Amino acid sequence: MFCPYCGAQNEDAANTCKECQKPLPKPEEERKEKEKPVYNPPPVRPFQPGSPGSEYVFAAPVNYSSGYVYQPASTVGVAQSDSIALARLGAYIIDSIITGVISLVVVVIPLVFWVTSFVSRYYSDLEATCNTSRDTVACDNLLENIMVEKGELWGFLGVVGGFGLLATLLCLAYSVYFTARGATPGKKVFGIKVVRQDGSTPGFGAALLRQTVGYFISSTVFMLGFLWAVFDKYGQGWHDKLAKTYVVKA
């Protein structure tokens, strides 16, 4: 038997080591010690995330709104750039030329026909009385008689007023129709359009409000309502604010 302390060899029946004098284990106890089963505990499994005892926990679910709220595009509701301000001015000039041509055709042409008819009917009287500048009183009396007593003044006012109103309505229809669809021809040329906050086209109601009451308000106080769009945070004139519209790049 070998001493478990110093390693010296001893007799099997010895109780103490002859070298270190320490007690030697009995053969029966040594046998039992060798035969004693070795216990190996199973490996500890880490806690799963979210389970009790884990250092990782799942966050509580967040209640999100079920409704989808449209966020305006980056071009909507942002500061007005100089390029868009100049584009709006250019679009206004082009649209003014178009509406001017409409007014010219609707008002001036009927007025020319009326003047031609007036002269042909009273040419002889006018030629005899107003051909010279000697008797201006007689000429004035003749014109007064023709215009007032013969009712030609009402015919003249009817042509100017009636066709002028028609021209105004046509120009308004032009601006409302195209604005309701997003852009007038002038705005299309310069690559801009009119939209709502959600990016959709204004529609007839907003376009009518913008082009009538809105334009009237913006034109007061030296056109300040139109100039307001240059300095406004969202690039809106007074007419845009009233109709809740924006002018953005197309």
Automatic annotation (TrEMBL):
It is found in: Cell membrane. Residues 19-45 are annotated as: Disordered. It comes from Candidatus Chlorohelix allophototropha. Residues 87-244 form the RDD domain. One of its GO terms (cellular component) is plasma membrane. The chain crosses the membrane at residues 89-115, 153-178, 213-231. Residues 19-37 have a biased composition (Basic and acidic residues). Keywords: Cell membrane, Membrane, Transmembrane, Transmembrane helix. It is a multi-pass membrane protein. It comes from the Bacteria. This is RDD family protein. InterPro entries: Pra-immunoreactive, RDD.
